[in-house]
Amino acid sequence: MNGLHEFPLILFTVLAQVAAGAWLLLLFPVAGAFADKQRQLQRGLWPILLFLAIGFAASIMHLGSPWRAFNSLNRVGQSMLSNEIACGALFFALAGGYWLLALMEKMPKGLGRLWLPLSGLAGLAFMYVMNRVYHIPTVPTWDNLFTTFNFYLTVVLGGTALAAPLLWRVGDKATLLPKLFLCGLGVAAIVAVYQGFEFAQLRTGVTSFAALVPDYAYLTALRLCLLAVAACLLWRRKVGGAVVALCLTLLAEMIGRSLFYAMHMTLGMAF
């Protein structure tokens, strides 16, 4: 599995998707909670921002310099990479600004009702553009629906695993979260198996899918097993178990993302 050479990108994409998923799932509980519980939920949003901060730090490591990130903004509207950075920065700013104002108790109720959905829309745009970045016509192993499914599944699985302990710690039952995670796991298993069969015979004039990811079956099975254990822990609806489930989900999705980067295959002779 040589996708680990893109470890900064693995961190960035997985953590950003997990953070966006959790933020989207928490929009309605935060907006609709009574005053005391709302303040508790607002103060507890910091792990989402921490994930985003670590993810963006990892992306800067990949670029090599913060100045390159600023240079990448030169083509907003024309380049998907520029759009990704712009949408990500906007989402981070809106989410961070909401949390900071709420923490200082300076967020007016009317503004908060507007700010939350705007931050959610920014998060959705960020996830959409991040997915589109990897739909490169010359990379057939990326330019397909499997990429879209896998990226959005990380949003669902990781977002659920992060949102669960944040909600349960303040007494919110959130009984739908374990069911949502289980549904996501079922779809992830179907996608992983179908992808393996679909790409098994894929080859170019210089390499093949089997040569790029010889451990695809083993690592995919490991990923799904980790997610299954996480689903069992979430089903118990305990905060401690949910934290462990989050760690297992992060590990599982990073394994899946490392496979994604490992299967990078460009069009070549005799494709």
From TrEMBL:
Question: Sorted alphabetically, which InterPro entries does this protein's record hold?
Answer: DmsC
Domain of life per record? Bacteria
Q: What residue intervals traverse the membrane?
A: 12-34, 46-65, 85-104, 111-129, 149-168, 180-197, 217-235, 242-263
Q: Give a yes or no for keyword Cell wall biogenesis/degradation in this entry.
A: no
* Keywords noted in UniProt: Membrane, Oxidoreductase, Transmembrane, Transmembrane helix
Q: Which GO terms describe its molecular function?
A: dimethyl sulfoxide reductase activity
Q: Which GO terms describe its cellular component?
A: dimethyl sulfoxide reductase complex; plasma membrane
Database matches in Pfam families = DmsC
What top-level class of enzyme does the UniProt entry assign? oxidoreductase
- Any one Gene Ontology BP term: anaerobic electron transport chain
EC identifiers of the protein: 1.8.99.-
PANTHER family noted in UniProt:
ANAEROBIC DIMETHYL SULFOXIDE REDUCTASE CHAIN YNFH
UniProt protein name: DMSO reductase anchor subunit, DmsC
Q: Which organism is it from?
A: Haemophilus pittmaniae HK 85
Q: Which gene encodes it?
A: dmsC
